[in-house]
Every structure is written in C-alpha cells, then in structure tokens.
C-alpha cells in the first residue's frame, strides 16, 4: 500500500517495517515518539464512544469498559509502531454485536492501552487481575492418559478439536503488518512445515492465494479452514493484502492443521471425529513442540502467549466438542449451566454462527490464568457433566 493511501485510510502515517524497526536502524520510516494522534482520529474515537453509549442493544465488553475517563486518558496515546486507540476499538464500534470488541494491533498495545485492556481481560478470563501472572506452560504431556474418551459409544459427540495460537517473535499483529511481512512470515513457516517428518504430522502447505473457490469452500464447510470476509476482523483492519501470506497446512487425514496469518500468525489445531480428548491433545502437543523447536514465539511475562484478540491470551487454548444434547440444550437454563461450568457455547460453524441439527460447539471459555492442561480439563470435566445431565434427562 502506498504511504498516501495508508494515511487516507488511517489518518496517520504508516508504521515502519516492524522487524526493521526492532532489529536494525535502516532508514525505514519512523514515527517520532512525541508525535500527537491526529485530530481526525481523536474525533473518530469520540464518535465511536458516543455510538457505543447510544446503542442500547450493544453488550460488548468494549462498551462496558470504554468509559469517558478511559477515552480521555487513552485517546492521545500511540505505540512505537503508531497504533492508537481507534485501531484498538474500531471493530467493536463497527460491530455492535461483538462480544469483546477490541483487538491489540501490536504487543505494546496491551501495555499502552492497559486502562481498557486490563478490565476487559479481567472480566473475560474469570477475574484475572492486573497483578496476576500467567502460569508457566504445561501442555499436559504426562497427563493425556487422564482424558479417556468422553463418549465411547459415539452417541453425543461428533468431533473434538483443540487449537492454540502463536505469534512469531519480531512481528506485530495484522493491522501493523506490511505485505512484505506477510510473505516473509509465510516463507518462514513453510520452511518449518517442509521439515516436519514425524509420520502422523507430516503434510503439505496450501496457500490461499491460488486455491480454487471450490476447494476453499469445501475446506470451510468441513470445519478445516477459516472463513473469508469475517466482518469483525475486517473492521479491525486485519485482512489487508488478503489472500497474500495466508494458507493452511494439514496432514493427510486432516487431523493436524496449521492456519497461517488469519487472525493470529499461527493457529495450531488437532482434531478428529469422536470424543477422545486425550488423543487430540497428545497430537497437538507433538505438533506444538515440533514447530516451536524451529520458530521463536512472542510470550509476555504476565499475559503468556500473545495473540491479536485479548480473549485468546495466556494459553491460547480453545478445546471444543461438537455435541448433540437434545434434552438439556432445549432447557432455558442451558446457557447458565454452561456458564457455571466455565464453558462457552457456539454454533456449528464457529463463533457468531448458529446451531444446526441440534449440534453445538462447546468449549472452555477462559484461556488466561490457568495452564494449557487445565484449560483442556475445564472443557473435559464440563462436557462430562453435561453428558451425565443428558443421560439423566433421558431416563427421567
Ligand atoms: N469440536 C469441533 N469439531 C469440528 N470442528 C470444529 C470443532 N470446534 C470448532 N470447529 C470448527 O473450527 C472452525 C473454526 O471455528 P471458530 O472460528 O469458532 O474457532 P477458533 O478456530 O477456535 O477461533 P476463534 O475463537 O478465533 O473464532 C469452524 O469451522 C468450526 O466449526
């Protein structure tokens, strides 16, 4: 994108090439530290605040925590890469039905705009306080045997999936990435994929650029590939240069997959039919370890593994089942039962979709303030309880 075009869209100068600004002193464009946020951007922030306040049907965490005081203290701030409060809130302002409504354009945003991020993080992640620290990584390698099949008869669970996100160290998140960054990152991870020789994980990388619509649609329909044109990500300025640098790696059976440069730099996924959570976790652990041996990832002292959306910080783990619970899901208290079990309910085609044929996506909600294994166990114990309730309802 030309500098002029960037300025027109963002009302501010373009960020420098992130890796150049971090690792070298080449003559890339640098935003002066004391440069004020453009008046036009501040006006848009104020408009956004007013729009949220006026929207009685908006229940996002953004609306709740973007108070007048927070706006006034943050609207003049910028990160070193040039990200401002508008970059953080614009998706939630455009999409009043957002659950969270904010994204971090770069890692520094979590600190620069902490007056907004901290209360959102605390509320989303079961009360994770600003002085709390994410525990050390424990993927649960020695404990996969403690997660036997949740549904050995195959009566309730269609499939199980566990994913985690990773950000390549030295690169910011989507809104601050250049086209050159996307291509460089894709090249780096392709090289890693080419070196995966472990039998179960070995596979191929399929770039989105050049993939036929037919294959892409089928992969999305079968729950393997990310959707295109996500309005929440688009409004967050996260889809620039699409489909450049985006793609999917998967093994032959499509049980081990890696999404490249969708919402996060990497989404590492293990999935299979049925309810064998231990097997799915075991494969994910193998995959994560294989990839991280070859690429350094961004980890924050307090917030754990860094991601674009604050809902994914910490472990970044979402462990889910696609499950049919016709009796209890018809009850009005189904959602509050799931809330009590710290579970999140989604539709069958992922976030912001509806259930189809009585199948729900049920997963752990919190990802921060607990270990990876504990996040998976939260889903495991909760779903086990829901199946017990369903069985009781069947015999009542
Ligand atoms: N247990 C599961 N079995 C099969 N497919 C699943 C399962 N869980 C999620 N999926 C599929 O994965 C795809 C992505 O889902 P979705 O976007 O909700 O979650 P995500 O990848 O965890 O990311 P995010 O939370 O950022 O949206 C969708 O097609 C969804 O149906």
TrEMBL record:
One of its GO terms (biological process) is phosphocreatine biosynthetic process. One of its GO terms (cellular component) is extracellular space. ATP binds at residues 159-163, 223, 267, 318-322, 346-351. GO terms for molecular function: arginine kinase activity; ATP binding; creatine kinase activity. Residues 44-126 form the Phosphagen kinase N-terminal domain. Its EC number is 2.7.3.3. Residues 156-393 form the Phosphagen kinase C-terminal domain. It comes from Mesorhabditis belari. Keywords: ATP-binding, Kinase, Nucleotide-binding, Transferase. PANTHER family: ARGININE KINASE 1-RELATED, ARGININE OR CREATINE KINASE. This is arginine kinase. Gene3D superfamilies: ATP:guanido phosphotransferase, N-terminal domain (1.10.135.10), Glutamine synthetase/guanido kinase, catalytic domain (3.30.590.10). Belongs to the ATP:guanido phosphotransferase family. The keyword Chloroplast does not apply. InterPro entries: ATP-guanido_PTrfase, ATP-guanido_PTrfase_AS, ATP-guanido_PTrfase_cat, ATP-guanido_PTrfase_N, ATP-guanido_PTrfase_N_sf, Gln_synth/guanido_kin_cat_dom.
